[in-house]
Design brief:
The complex is a heterodimer of chains A (86) and B (256). With 86 residues, chain A is mostly helical. The longest helix of chain A has 40 residues, at 46-85. Chain A has one domain (2-85). Helices cover 76% and strands 0% of the residues of chain A. Chain B is flat, with a radius of gyration of 33 Å. By secondary structure, chain B is mainly α. Classes of the chains: A mainly alpha (86), B mainly alpha (256).
């Protein structure tokens, strides 16, 4: 159980750190304005569009990873134990 | 002559000899009497024994290796653990500092007063106490005047709070390890924390999206509500734990 926790935690922190990095590059117009959640740059360059794609992928990856290791896998194990007992 | 003989010559007082009262099924044996008089301790013993057994079963089920030690040594266990945790946070700091762009704006203009004047967040509660002007009473004996200015009133409110915090150790030794042991004082503590939070909201009432009057009323109402709920919950937990029966367990302290 503790192993599953740290796996989900590692995925969550690493993924959100990468997301935060790209969001600070492309979605932070000003320190005194909206941070990390600003609009995407209009007409991004080749590299910027790749970065935006990686940013979104990292957000989905971290959320799905945490969901998987913290909820889905333990729930599956509990369900398997339950149906094995009955 | 042996000791046995001398004992046999004396009158038997343990009920084994020729009884004065003829025993029948109604008379409890000494074993039964003892079990009856030690019912509570027997119950407590069985309770702890069952708890110990369940704990043992849980330990045997788990994959952890149990060692016969009271704690972990500072080297290497604690040190490596702490190194891992500090490396985690230092790594995060280095990563963010290296990758995130600096967002330094223009230097502050010392000739202009900033729009929002606030202390650091952990002093908001004290700043909020300075805004207690609405409850500074206007005394009719003074013709509707206030006995002191709102500013002095706020400063005195700070003194009252500090005084209350200073008095608490003299009223309660703080010997409780768990809130269930002393629900009243736990409720006092929760109410105090809640009051610090609500006065913090009063301090930033210009920024909070709530009517300042409502904020001001809630600043005194919410701590009472929180303290009441805490007291009720802890009292209920006491009953769930059968606190009176297991009082000794909940007051167990590790050896010094």
């Amino acid at each position: 159980m503790a192993d599953e926790f740290v796996k989900g935690f590692a995925i969550l922190t690493a993924g959100l750190l990468v997301w935060m990095m790209f969001a600070s590059w492309f979605n932070t117009p000003s320190f005194f304005d909206v941070q990390l959640l600003g609009p995407n740059p209009e007409d991004p360059s080749e590299y910027a569009s790749i970065g935006l794609l990686v940013k979104d992928a990292m957000l989905v990856f971290s959320l799905l990873g945490a969901l998987t290791f913290w909820i889905l896998i333990p729930a599956g194990r509990h369900a398997r134990e339950y149906y094995a007992a009955n | 002559m042996s000791d046995n003989d001398s004992q046999q010559s004396e009158p038997a007082t343990d009920g084994s000899g020729p009884g004065i009262v003829a025993p029948d099924d109604e008379v409890p044996s000494w074993r039964e009497r003892k079990e009856r008089t030690t019912g509570l301790s027997r119950l407590t013993y069985e309770y702890f024994e069952r708890a110990r057994r369940e704990d043992q079963d849980l330990r045997q089920e788990s994959s952890y290796v149990e060692r016969d030690v009271l704690g972990f040594p500072a080297w290497p266990h604690e040190t490596i653990r702490n190194l891992a945790i500090s490396s985690f946070f230092i790594g995060m700091l280095l990563f963010l500092a290296a990758t995130m762009p600096p967002t330094l704006e223009d230097a502050a203009n010392p000739a202009v007063t900033p729009e929002i004047i606030l202390p650091d967040w952990y002093l908001y509660w004290s700043f909020g106490l300075l805004k207690l002007g609405p409850i500074n009473p206007e005394l009719s004996i003074l013709g509707g005047d206030k006995i002191m200015s709102d500013e002095l009133y706020g400063v005195l409110a700070n003194a009252v709070v500090f005084g209350a915090i200073a008095i608490v150790p003299f009223l309660n030794k703080g010997s409780a390890r768990r809130p269930v042991e002393q629900p009243f004082w736990a409720a006092i503590g929760v109410g105090g924390v809640m009051f610090a939070f609500t006065t913090s909201v009063v301090a930033v009432q210009n920024l909070a999206p709530i009517d300042p009057n409502i904020t001001f009323d809630l600043a005194f109402l919410l701590p009472l509500v929180a303290a009441t709920i805490t007291y009720a919950v802890l009292k209920t937990m006491r009953e769930g734990y059968m606190y009176d029966l297991n009082r000794r367990y909940y007051r167990l302290r590790p050896p010094r």
